[in-house]
Amino acid sequence: MLSSNRDQFTSKLGFILAAAGSAIGLGAIWKFPYTAGTNGGSVFILLFILCTLLIGLPILMSEFLIGRRAQADTVSAFHKEAPGKPWFLGGWLGVTVSALILSFYGVVGGWILSYLFRAITFQLDGGSEAHYGELFNELISNPVEVIFAQALFMFLTVFIVQGGIKGGIERAGKWMMPALFIFFVLLAIRSLTLDGAIEGVKFMFVPDWSYLNMETLLNALGLAFFSLSVGVGAMITYASYLPKSETITSSAFNVAWMNIAISILAGLVIFPAVFALGYSPTQGPGLVFIILPAVFEQIPMGSVLVIVFFILLLFATLTSSISLLEITVSVFVKEKYAARRKLSWIVGAVIFIAGIPSALSFGHWSHITIMDKSIFDFIDYMTANVGMPLGALLFSLFAAYYYSTKITQQELNLSPAMYWIWRASVCVVAPVAIVTISLYNLFA
């Protein structure tokens, strides 16, 4: 029996901001711009919005339903809701995948801290894309700096999580997420006032229908799916701290639209500046670390704006890393609330150590490959293309098929028409989409 003293969010707003922070991470600010840039911009963005609302949102609602109903961590939730059944293995899958993601996510968080330090000390003054490319390669191949920065990022993550829901996660979300939104609006305004910025706006909002093809659709579907942070149990865990008096459907809608809004804002910060200064939007993953510093340097007050940008990127990365760590910590804490601080530091230390091979995979251990991929890329590939899709498939099917229609109707509190749209999505559309994405990513 779960304790009635289980920690909870003090408000619906606190829950929404924390859940949105989990979703709005590197996917929205790092991956969305470069994926949109390499897939033609406008058509990709339209497909991304549709896929988020029609497929990602119903899965998100399913995870909220399981977590809020069970009022337990990801593993205990399935033990409680399906006693004696093997569904709990899906919970352990989510815990494992979230820990693996955080092991290399912490490495990227360290890169951001290194860039932020360089920005604050005005060392980002190379003046060319080539210089920043060299800087990025030097950074990721420096074992001392990357491991130290990774440790610092993990320290920040654990420090917040060990404070619990009210004192740590909810408090961090309440100031990080509004700050993220306000700073992004300011940066977008500055970017849109550059000469030639209109070309970037056209790239985002004037459709080029030549990009309307299966590859663009699958890329948009994959980003929409993963950017909502479904499939690892994060949303089950967060919803377990939500009082049963709170509705979950409106919370899911709020998380979805906030994710879309921040993604679009990220595009409005990046693409107008990229086009105004003559760069290509098809730079790929290096867009943030290589192109943007060069772009900001050519903008008035660019040395200040680049600091703001990397602070934003740090906030977004932290809000996601917090949720990833909380998934694992909550499984071990259960009712032992007094042990949360100790367990948070232990779990964080283990994940940090597990991430060291990823940190070294661009330098001293670059010769080590698995399936022709570096250690970092292999873990990223397996979690994104195998672990998360399988987890999301299990969670959505559990909500749709294990629970009775009466229970899901009562929990979701939707109109009859909206309820059957949700059911059709999680029973048919989402599973087909997940299997299609997985097969495409594995064999394309």
From TrEMBL:
GO terms for cellular component: membrane. This is Transporter. Keywords: Membrane, Transmembrane, Transmembrane helix, Transport. The keyword Nucleotide-binding does not apply. It is found in: Membrane. It is a multi-pass membrane protein. PROSITE patterns: NA_NEUROTRAN_SYMP_3 (PS50267). PANTHER family: TRANSPORTER. The chain crosses the membrane at residues 12-30, 42-66, 87-113, 146-165, 177-198, 218-241, 253-279, 299-322, 343-362, 382-403, 424-443. It comes from the Bacteria.
